[in-house]
Amino acid sequence: MLKCNEIVDQATDYVDKQLNWKQAMNMALHLLMCRNCRRFIHYFRLSLQILISRKTLSAEAAADIAAKAIAEAQNSTD
After folding, report:
1. Nearest CA to 60 among 16, 4, 7, 21?
2. Distance of CA 72 to CAs 21, 45, 63, 77, Å?
3. Distance between CA 27 and CA 77 in Å, rounded?
4. What is the pTM of this model?
5. Do 37 and 31 contact (CB within 8 A), yes or no?
6. Which listed residue, 23, 48, 54, 60, has the most CB atoms within 10 A of its CB?
């Protein structure tokens, strides 16, 4: 099973549906069992949607910001 830090690593690919079948199933299994990661993914998606809907950023720029936020989250858990 994936660890929480691996969920953070794969969040962008998960939200963009870029994971292969096995990775997606492992992610789904972890999210079923981990409330904190479900919350993280929920707010991650919400943040991206807000940034894109405001049309202040392109989807690519929003993804770059999200990647930086993920990196910061990883550094704070290490």
Report:
1. 16
2. 28, 17, 14, 9
3. 19
4. 0.69
5. yes
6. 48
